[in-house]
Amino acid sequence: MTLSTQSMVEVRTHERLVELVLNRPRAHNALSTEMAQQLIRACETAVRERARAVVLTSAGEKAFCVGADLKERNGFTDDDLMRQRIVFRKAFQAVLELPMPAVAAVHGYALGGGFEIALSCDLMVADESAVFGLPEVRVGLVPGGGGTQLLSRRIGSTRASDLIFTGRRIDIEEAERWGVVERRCVAGQVREQALELAAAIAENSPTAVANAKHALTTGKHLPLPAAMDVEDAAWRATALSDDRREGIAAFNAKRSPNWKD
Predict the structure, then answer these.
(1) Superkingdom, according to UniProt (predicted)?
(2) Domain locations along the chain
(3) Share of the chain residues as helix, strand and coil, in percent rounded to the nearest 5
(4) What is the value of pTM for the model shown?
(5) Strand, coil or helix: 164
(6) Could you tell me if 100 and 53 are in contact, meaning their C-beta atoms sit under 8 angstroms apart?
């Protein structure tokens, strides 16, 4: 494993995986402007490193991320807030548009923008300490990192409305029952579980996985006939790749595939 420290966001490389660590534990990993900028650069690093999967974890024991740093915003003018908005939107978009699967490892509080960072990932693993919420309406805002769109697509519009309109929090029991998280684990093991999940993904054809993610993320916004065309294009591109030829050869030779990055 190699480690590149970027202060508020660490980039850890584990062979074919890249781990992005939110690293402001004293502030419960609250998202500041600088941290958002570093998250953008960290995602760019993951793409540049040709990672087969990305895992988002966090430092500290109490929180994954409690959302925007309201102490930083306390002295903001309206212009300051709009300038920060540009950076924040790019940060959420950087996670959402990662070309490889991204797995969020959530423990403790995942609130506001922190919850939205997790929702921007393809899969979410959470331990028994996890608490989720979108409390923006309680401070005169609405979710702005994809909360109104990503949560409703994940759990349905009525349940998303419940959380967003009330600003209430839910524990791991309710989160699991509603389908907020894909996998649940005991406290203290979420990072390891998320890395294991990402490693299982990385064993597969990187071309096939990337094209499958493209079909999933693109197709869900389209009518079914158009979405089927997206899937067909993804299938054709993968079928004509070296990975398909290697996969068939490995299967018939009864050996493990040797995928090319």
Answers:
(1) Bacteria
(2) 2-202, 206-253
(3) 50, 20, 30
(4) 0.93
(5) helix
(6) yes
| Structure confidence by residue, pLDDT tens digits, 234-245 | 999 999 999 999
Q: Which helix (H) or strand (E) holds 232?
A: helix 224-239
CATH fit for domain 2-202, picks 3.90.226.10, 3.40.50.300, 3.20.20.70, 1.10.4030.10: 3.90.226.10
CB atoms within 10 A of CB 125: 29
Cα–Cα distances in Å, from 9 out to 21, 45, 178, 189, 200?
A: 5, 12, 30, 21, 24
pLDDT digits (tens, 9 = 90+) for 36-83: 999 999 999 999 999 999 999 999 999 999 999 999 999 899 999 999
Q: Which residues are catalytic?
A: 68, 113, 116, 136
User: What is the residue whose two structure tokens read 């398909």?
Assistant: 244
